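[stage:ingest] chain + small molecule (NAP)
[stage:ingest] validated
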Amino acid sequence: MTWNKQTTIALFGTGLMGAPLTERLLDAGYKVVVWNRSPEKLEPLVAKGALAAETPGQAVRSAEVLVTWLADQRAIQEVLFPAERASLLAGKTILQMATIGPSHSRGLEDAAIAHGAQYLEAPVLGSIPEAKKGSLLLMVGATVAQFERFQLLLSVFGKNPVHVGPVGQAAAMKLAFNQLIAGLTASFSLSLGLIQKEGVRVELFMDMLRDSALYAPTFDKKLLRMLERDYENPNFPTRHLLKDTDLFLDAADEHGLTAACLQGVRDTVAIALAKGLADTDYSAINEVIHPPIKNQQQGTYPKTD
Ligand code: NAP
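[stage:predict] done
[stage:export] tokens:
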């Protein structure tokens, strides 16, 4: 298949990530057909030039390249691979960008090939701000030929897409990053909790941490949210962190890795969901690790001496 900016792209799933990335495709001059389970999310994109498909089948028929920004593997399976629509996939290329497990991604590749389609994966590191700017870090699981063919399109989302290896390896790398997100956030919340409980100045703790080998920039990104217990307007919601820790645990199990430490974090994230924090920023796991005590004043940051 040869294609260029006149090729129609269908994008499935115009949620937190799919919507800004549709806008980037439109701004770059691509013809984009969008489909979303909740059709009201399509309206702002149609206003910017996207064409709305009423059904997934209509979107599949209208495009050569099918980009998936759906929540998980089950949603992709339901939207692209139901028996009655499977024949529509012949000759299309599926570009899967959501976070799913390596074995799920390989399974989707097998299903795509069985239906005469091509499949590649390009999960990303970064969130809504990076999606809007086109500065996502892209990990690509594909053949060399597919990677070369899709570089132009992928560069709309991030400047330097990296070819990791065959399908499954980019999905694995993405999970490796996301278990770090889970672990680092939980660890930071726990340390910050002790600092606050003991009345140590948070600013002093942060200054020493920033000078140390233990520092990760994500700590500063989440510090104020945790101190102010403000988890609104998420870029990455807690429910997706649970999905990704579960995906990592499955992969660890498959490979005989001991992931007891991540299991503890996973259970913490699950409690956050049970507390009604599914749609908040994932740093809300702080509410489980360091719950507020009624009438107790929180945080001493950024006061100085
Ligand atoms: P989101 O806002 O929750 O969007 C999920 C999308 O999937 C929505 O369009 C939703 O439709 C659709 N969906 C869910 N279940 C479905 C089903 N059974 N059938 C059809 N459609 C279904 O999530 P997001 O943040 O954009 O994330 C999408 C994917 O990218 C996830 O795998 C996530 O882990 C990954 N990701 C997210 C970020 C981030 O920072 N947010 C970064 C990197 C990767 P409705 O609108 O109808 O609910």
